[in-house]
Amino acid sequence: MIEAIRARVAEKLKELDGVIGLRRSPEGVAPYLFHTEEELAELVLEPRYPMSSVVRLLQKRHPAARFGVVARGCDVRALVEMAKRNQVDPERLYIIGFTCTAEEAEACHCADPAPNVTGWPQAEVIGTPVAAGSPNPMVAEYAQMPRAERWAFWQQQFKKCIKCYGCRNICPVCFCESCALEDPLWVEPGVMAPPFPMYHMIKAMHMSNRCVACRQCELTCPAHIPLTVLYDLIRQDVENLMGYVPGADLEALPPVPLTLADAPIDLDVE
Amino acid sequence: MDYKNVRTTCIYCGCGCTLNVQVADGEVVGILPCPEHPISRGSLCIKGWNAAEFATHPDRLRVPLIRREGGFEEASWEEALALVAERLGAIRDDSGPDSIGFFTSAKCTNEENYLLQKLARAVIKTNNVDHCARL
Q1: What is the fold of A2-126?
Q2: How confident is the model over A219-231, as pLDDT tens digits?
């Protein structure tokens, strides 16, 4: 698969201003903007990094540039939600999607391990889609708990939080310029652990219609808080109650208004 | 139009987490954690996540400062090091080597810490060496 991807990236480099992918240098693997075919021997697919966030960063720095990105299914889902919120410009992005392996899908309990590029102006997918990973057993286990036990479970988990803000920082769809979690009104500075449940509830509410289940927050959490259990359940609720699946469809509008102009309130009050 | 990550070690404490410093067009623009690193394993604390901020912070010291009557004044490295050598030498001669203590830092590399204790023991001739990570 990697050779097929390298060949396609080499082809697209002729017309793009660069392709964002993972590069294995002597230092190790990290995101990189590829410019030349010679560099592509160093293009790799692992480990996981928030590639969509790098797209956002580079598109904002270079408002006229046309980039490509080598992206997994979850990267593409994140790009979908970012595009709806004007964080990336689909017209200036070529997606070279690739399918995850069955082992990767299982490790992530991923329901959708192949990139869905429907609706993207310029995109392709390399590889054969594998079956979804098995559902996260912790979600089923949690769903069996009575309410009081659920409360105690999260209290116990969030007590471990060291307030690194890593879950927010690495989240591809968490990009507000001013963050409620940095507002002393909601989160008192210098106090550990952060207020339960307010800190995590604010994050969860903001994520409710945009979490694309990429699992980056859980992977980066130094306290090993099982954040995907929380977000899986929120995603289930949003799908069941509002029929919305974040990242699935570039055209589908999220249930929460994207701008104040869409808000169902009268903004003309004196 | 360049973007790369420069791998380095977090300088905030003695844990030694690895940072990927995101560099776009020669400018430090952010930090990513490093999933491959055996110590930090893709995690960082709040200090590591924000380590890019001080690199370009206007308050960052870029030249040595010498305290004179009017307050701190910018100086050359030669001048600053000459002053330190002169004063440490004078204090050692007047009050003995053990009147001087050396405090090293988790923000330095092992090798830099080694060099400071070497200066203390071999040049000044005192064993008064301590380190902020021991506090």
Answers
A1: Rossmann fold (3.40.50)
A2: 999 999 999 999 9
| A84-127: pLDDT as tens digits | 999 999 999 999 999 999 999 999 999 999 999 999 999 999 99
Does the pLDDT value for residue B101 go beyond 70? yes
Burial of B129 (0-12, 13-18, 19+ CB in 10 A): middle
Residue A221 CA to residue A207 CA, distance in Å, equals 16
How does DSSP assign A140-151, residue by residue? HHHHTS-HHHHH
ipTM above 0.95, yes or no: no
Q: Which of A164, A175, A192, A224 to mutate to test the interface with B (most CBs of B within 10 A)?
A: A164
Instruction: Work out the percent of chain B whose per-residue pLDDT is above 70.
Output: 98
Contact A30 B42 (CB under 8 A): no
Q: Which residue of A has its CA nearest to B8?
A: A27
> Structural domains in chain B?
3-55 (2.20.25.90), 65-134 (no CATH)
Domain ranges of chain A: 2-126, 137-242
